[in-house]
Give the backbone structure.
Amino acid sequence: MKKKLISKLIIAAVFAGLLSGCGNSITSESSFGSLMLNIENSQRSLTPSISREVTKFTVKGSGPEGISPIELDLTEQTALIENIYPGEWSFTVEALNTDGIILGSGSNTVTVTNGETTQLTIDVTELSGNGTLNLAVSWVDGEIKLPSISAILTDSSGVESGVVFTIGDDLISASFSGDYPVGNYKVTILVKDGEALVMSRTEEVLIYKDQITSGDMLFDSINKFVGELSITISTKLRKSLDLAILGIPADGIIYKTTTLSVVNNTPATTPEYEWFINGLSYGTGTSIDVDPSGDLGYCYVSVIGRDSLSISSGSVSELVDIEAYKVGDIGPSGGYIIYDDEADGVDNIIGFRYLEAAAADIGKRSWGSWDPTLVVNAQGIDVGTGIQNTLDIIAEDPALNKAADACADYVVTKNGVNYDDWFLPSINELTLMYSELHTKGLGGFLNAQYYSSTRGGSTAATLMFKTGVQWNYNTSISNYVRAVRAF
């Protein structure tokens, strides 16, 4: 007995709905096979304004001669086509968004075997071809006298190409339009006044077939030749990854010792990062230590993130003021800066730049044992000798809880960081606390005797903060202690 068979389409996953294709009129069940169809969507995120979400797959298949073609509209990526005529079949797939724009396509061939389920996978990839990049730059009237705008466009393989902007008749804007192959690019905008580079910016863009990627950039703060650097960004071209830069204080001022890090708030992505300062590459990884040569003033810190397949990418920029610490500033631990080793051009603190006095006294301690002959070293007087003096006292005097021990054991926690690198200052370092802080009403010192780490014969050098006069005290007598650290 012959059975009447109806072609049907079964989707392996749950979906909203689909349209069935037309079957072949065959009267014997043994004359059919079945085909499991898998569609692999390899489309990347896009920056143009079109929707990048695939809402429908159009599937077309042609089989053996005389067999009707198959046409399907799918909303899922897996389908089971039953009662398909055995033989060689060719399938093409187009991925469309909600507006009917084709986002990608793919094709493959398969031989369907009688009575069996045949697997077929079709990779859907982005359309090849060219897209258009439109860039517009503007600035405040009168800020740039001889404007010259250019850009460097770098593709994902590192190949660079130059971009030259056309200056507008108003002399406060410039524009560029060009066609480029589909893909990810890094663009660095260079704004010049004559031959002087007054501002730059680096961003991530994506070119997509037959689509326009646009970016409008307003530079309403331009560096003057006196060295001030400031920029305001009005728009971003693309930010598929949700990135943020951590470590910038509320006042926007960061110093040479500041560590900045990037956090990615986009689930299921593992990007790699490249950092930029003033448009110049500054390092890779999740964090950088800001240590430029010289004070930069106002500038942009930017970071670009891309995952290992360049499928997801994004960038973020923050305006900062990169400065050196000044004597009297609050230091990283909350204490006070009393010395900048680069100010006089002499390297007094090997391996460090600044001295930071603790924000408060430790209390009163003896300098050491009653026997002053135990410590034979610790004779450093100058700035930069307090560290070694402290090590010498701890190593040579067995007394417990003395001034040097109290400083070495001192720990201050600030913004989640433990600062435990304190020492007892040399007499000249202690004098800096008096002259740079106490005489200016800073630091909360008492008008009392403070110990230094400098040994003076059989006594220890102290400083009376009421008068600024140095004294030598018996090492077993207790005096006030204020720790210092180098960084």
